[in-house]
Specification:
Layout lengths: L4 E2 L14 H4 L9 H21 L4 E9 L6 H12 L8 E7 L1 E5 L4 E5 L14 E5 L3 E8 L1
Parallel strand pairs: 2-3
Antiparallel strand pairs: 1-7, 2-7, 4-5, 4-6
Amino acid sequence: MASGWALAHPDAAESGRASRAAGAMRRPGERGRMHELALCQSVLSTLAEQASIHHFDRVTTVRLEIGALSCVSPEAIEFCFAAVTRGTLADGAGLELIRLPGQAWCLECDATVAIDERHEACPRCGGYRLRLVQGDEMRIKDLEVV
C-alpha cells in the first residue's frame, strides 16, 4: 500500500534513519530490547497515522527493511513487534524482515563496494575513505491492509 515510509523516531527527523544511540550504550555482546521497543512503538505510530489517512482498519502484514549495519537485532524486533501490537490495528500482523547489506562508496577508487562492518577498508583498493550508502537504515517497506 504505502512504500518507503521512514520511521518517526525522534533522531530520524533529518536523515530518515533510526537512531543508533541506544544500541551504542550497550556493552559488547549485551542484547537489550529497549532500543528495539522504541523502534516498534514508532512503527505502530506510523501505522496508526497511515490508517487514519488511508482509511484502513487492520494491518495484516508489515515488511521492514533493516540494514546489516543498523545495530538493530532482528530477533528483538520480532519480539517487541508482537508485544507492542497486541490489541491494536496490527494485532496478529505478520512481520517480514528484509536485511539490506552494507554498501559504501569509496572516495579513493570511485567504486560502490559491499562492506560487513563500519570503518573497514575498501575491499577493492584498501582505502579507508568510504561513505556509507546503504546498510544503517530501518524503514517500513510496505504493508498489507484490510
